[in-house]
Every structure is written in C-alpha cells, then in structure tokens.
Amino acid sequence: MITRLPTWVWVGAASLALVAGMVNVVGYLGFEHQAVTHLTGTTTLLGAAIAHGDARSSWHLLIVVLSFVGGAVLSGFIIQDSTLRLGRRYGVALAIEAILLATAVPLFERQQIAGAALAAMACGLQNAMTATYSGALVRTSHLTGMFTDLGVFLGHRLRGVHAEPRRLWLCLAIIGGFLAGGVIGALLFPHFAYRTLYLPALLTGVTGVAYAAYRHRRGPAGTLSP
Questions:
Q1: What's the number of domains the chain is made of?
Q2: Taking CA 35 as the corner, what is the angle to CA 143 and CA 140, rounded to the nearest 5 degrees?
Q3: I need a labelling partner for 50 at 20 to 30 A (CA). Which of 142, 163, 199, 223 fits?
Q4: Which domain holds residue 24?
Q5: Percent helix / strand / coil, the chain, rounded to 5
Q6: What's the CATH number where 128 sits?
Q7: What is the pLDDT of residues 193-215, one digit of tens each?
C-alpha cells in the first residue's frame, strides 16, 4: 500500500511517462508505423508476420522485441533492484536513455530499423528502471497496468472497500503524462520529423540531472524505504 509519495516519485513518474508518450508516437508516425514503448502489439504483429511468411517484417519486429528486452537487461545490470529507492543509480540509467534516444534520430532519418531498435532499448531501460514502489507496480512506458489499477480502485470504492487515494493520483499522473507526451509528439512530428526525439532525450537527461541533485541534497539520511 502506498502511504506516502515523495516529490521525486511524482515528478519522475509523470516526466518519464511524458517521455514515453512522445517516443511512442514518433515510432508510430515514422516509416515503420511501429509502437516501441511496449511489446504486446509488437508480439502480436510478429506472430502474424511469421504466420504469413513475411521474413522482413518478422526480422524487424523481432529486433524491436529483443532491443526492448536488452534495455531491461541493461537497467537490471545498472540498478540491480526493481524497487524504487532514493540513492540508486537512476541518473546513470537516464543518461544512457538520453544517449540512446538522441542516437536513434539519424538512424530513423535514414529509415534504418536500428533507429527503432535504439528507441525500444531506451524504453525497455526506462520501464525496467521504474518497477515498484511500496509494493505497487509503477510502469511509465505503457498504460495497461495503470488503467487496470484505476479500474480496481474504482471497483473497491464502489464496493466500499478502502482504496489508497494516492495510488489513484499516481495512476492519473502517469496516464496524463503519457497522453500529454503523445499529443506533444504528434504536434511536433509534422514540423521536426524524427528530430522530435531530441526533446524526450533532453527531458530524460534533465530528469536524470535533477534526480542526481535531489539525491545529493538529501544524502544517505534521505534514503526512502517504502
């Protein structure tokens, strides 16, 4: 149960959801029309491509899936735990994510699948980095879990069962951030094309620096244990 939400959790979750929304809409509007922040649809398309014998699409989709998983592996290697806790190396992970997104731009512009692969790796890294807080899942690169938790919260309230309000607001912050990122990315894409990804890369880098500064200011005594 979430009993308290530090400022860094609120800001970080909403900011990263905003980033994911922008990255996903750029991938969707791009040359492959491929979402990169989650794997459910990608795996479905992979199954269809295999069934139809489409080797090119199968290979491209498999690359996206493996890249996302590779990003999660990288996150696990850097952070070494799935529970959100002040003091872990999120700044390093965010810096790597920013580099991956910025590097994806020229590859996307040359219509190379490596661009989608790097964007998917960045999203896998981000999604694995923000895993749990106070026993609750906190995912910022896709919304299925957030909408599920929102429905469960409303069901509990209708039943008269106690439900933690902060969990509701966290879900809404992530959903709102992702939606806002999609809107911003879709508005910018006609003007800047794949260079739109420089904005989420910048936001990711800024979030990483802000987190590092906050962690330094709080020091070891500020470590938050859910």
A1: 1
A2: 30
A3: 142
A4: 10-217
A5: 75, 0, 25
A6: 1.20.1250
A7: 999 999 999 999 888 887 777 77
